[in-house]
Specification:
Length: about 325
């Protein structure tokens, strides 16, 4: 009996659960929290999102799902690109299932007019592994290398006061924090700095361009986060002239209040050199802990060449647990 590749309707909870179980099994040996809890996937994947197209596929053998694939693509910017993810149940690896899933996702991406497809491979810190070898065999190049880091909040609490003493908010600046919904008076300036993200962070060879974040687009994104129970704990650095000089956030889902992720951290080049990044991160970590007292760990990723941000994360107590290879292929 052969293996069939079928598209999965994320609103079919039984099929989605089988798909999720494959991903969980495929990532079980990785450190940290590499796979979302079921409730997070159950709520987020079927949720309407005009920003992102999602295709879910499963490799079916008999009545069992033995492989899982996910293709995402942005619908308002970077319309040439898509992101592909492939997972194979550990007892069914090296049987060509991953290749068939990847090829199916590439067909879907090409049919949607995408000319560049990107993906991820996770390997031991500074090392290599089967995921990298598979990606290269499929024609994917390594476009960027990132460090995946994890923070135990107990470590953060122990060093928090010292961090505040060494990186106070600079004179003339102030920090504003909020849970997901940006105060109206900062909305336009917040959008301006969000639009700088792709042009300011190290992308390596990744073929991505900047986007435009209007107040309307931000408000729609905020409401989608609220609807799926995700808290985006955000800190803004406000410059003396009232503009947003920097932003950082920590994301925690109601479905998994013990673990969270750092989203973005960006300081306008005009305002760099004042340790605003560290001050913003302390503010977001404090807000996340105040909102979720049971928070145990956070994870983040940064380009290996981003020595400044890696130094900030080291100061906070983050420790490298994996290397992320950001992959890219021209279709």
């Amino acid at each position: 009996m052969g293996v069939d590749i079928e598209q999965i309707d994320p609103r079919n909870e039984a099929a989605l659960r089988a798909w999720w179980e494959v991903g969980r099994a495929a990532t079980a040996e990785r450190p940290g929290m590499p796979w979302p809890v079921w409730e997070q996937s159950r709520v987020a994947l079927p949720a309407p999102n005009p920003e992102r197209g999602v295709t879910i596929v499963g490799a079916i053998h008999g009545r069992e799902m033995v492989g899982a694939g996910l293709l995402t693509r942005t619908l308002k910017d970077n319309l040439h690109s898509a992101m592909a993810f492939v997972y194979v149940r550990p007892d069914r690896t090296r049987q060509g299932i991953g290749r068939r899933l990847a090829e199916e996702l590439e067909v879907v991406a090409a049919g949607d007019g995408r000319t560049t497809i990107q993906g991820e491979a996770y390997v031991p810190p500074g090392g290599s592994g089967p995921a990298e070898h598979f990606a290269r065999a499929m024609g994917y190049d390594v476009a960027s290398r990132e460090s995946i880091k994890e923070l135990a909040l107990a470590d953060y609490r122990a060093r928090r006061d010292e961090l505040v003493a060494t990186a106070p908010v600079p004179d003339g600046y102030r920090v504003v924090t909020f849970d997901t919904v940006c105060p109206e008076e900062h909305l336009a300036s917040f959008g301006r700095i969000l639009g700088m993200l792709m042009s300011e962070i190290p992308l390596g060879e990744l073929d991505l361009t900047a986007s435009d974040w209007t107040p309307e687009r931000i408000r729609e994104a905020e409401q989608r986060q609220v609807a799926i129970g995700r808290h985006v704990h955000t800190a803004l650095a406000i410059a003396p002239d009232g503009s947003v000089a920097g932003v950082s956030d920590v994301r925690v889902d109601d479905s998994d209040p013990a673990h969270g992720q750092v989203g973005i951290t960006l300081v306008d080049p005009v305002h760099r050199g004042r340790r605003l990044g560290l001050a913003l991160k302390v503010a977001t970590h404090d807000l996340a802990l105040a909102t979720h007292p049971g928070l145990v760990s956070l994870d983040t990723s940064n380009a290996e060449v981003n020595t400044w941000m890696n130094a900030v994360n080291d100061a906070l107590g983050y420790r490298t647990i994996e290397t992320l290879l950001e992959l890219q292929k021209r279709l």
